[in-house]
UniProtKB/TrEMBL annotation:
Protein name, UniProt field: Shikimate dehydrogenase
GO process annotations (BP): aromatic amino acid family biosynthetic process; chorismate biosynthetic process; shikimate metabolic process
Keywords in alphabetical order: Amino-acid biosynthesis, Aromatic amino acid biosynthesis, Oxidoreductase
InterPro entries: Aminoacid_DH-like_N_sf, NAD(P)-bd_dom_sf, Shikimate_DH-bd_N, Shikimate_DH_fam
Keyword Oxidoreductase among record annotations: yes
Pathway linked to the protein: Metabolic intermediate biosynthesis; chorismate biosynthesis; chorismate from D-erythrose 4-phosphate and phosphoenolpyruvate: step 4/7
Species this protein is from: Aquirufa nivalisilvae
EC number: 1.1.1.25
Shikimate dehydrogenase substrate binding N-terminal domain span: 9-93
Amino acid sequence: MSISHLYGLLGYPLGHSFSKKYFTEKFENLGLSESHCYEQFEIPQIEDFLALKSAQKDVLKGLNVTIPYKQQIMPLLDEIDSAAAKIGAVNTIKIYPDGKTKGFNTDYWGFRQTIETWEAFPKFKSKKAVVLGQGGAAKAIIAALEDLGLEVWKVSRTPEEGQISYEDLAAAMAEVGLIVNSTPLGMYPKIDTFPPIDYGLLTSQHYLYDIVYNPLRTAFLEKGIAQGVGGIYEGLEMLHGQADKAWEIWNA
């Protein structure tokens, strides 16, 4: 077996990753497993990306990027797609034959696709959308929701300009339709953690979306179900959508 096409995931730590399994199965299904390989590159600092790219320059074709490097990676790339530049985060890198690199954001497409096709979308479209967290995924989610015409409130424990606190959110919960958890709270192994919203204020007018996919049914979603929310959306479909978009970019 001779690997001519190497792909992988950059992040730290990577214990919760789904990408290696997903792409390994994709290569097998496409009959590419003899030449295509997907690995996890757990790098303790973002500068290690340059050494990795140099060491694997003959075979490395593309990378996914996860926590905590979606923003830190940007200055190290040769080019940034305009949509990713607007969002301010990169989660997919295409590596060209000449070694040049270009960053994209497929979180945007993965999330937008799931919202547009969710049967509950018309029920919360006219209300405020709330995004919990402020990382790279949050930036993509906010851009997607705004492009779909929703007014977005950004919530943070330490709010800056343009953000609100969890206390502010509690006071205005009646105006809210959609609440998206873009934080890692609830992700394995810390499955008993959840965002600090006032769950007692949730009603059937609220819809919860969690981008965490391990476990599928997070404490955030479970607490919403217990309060009788209108609906929930688990994180795996967004992941599938962004992974498929990454594959499309790598093969374009």
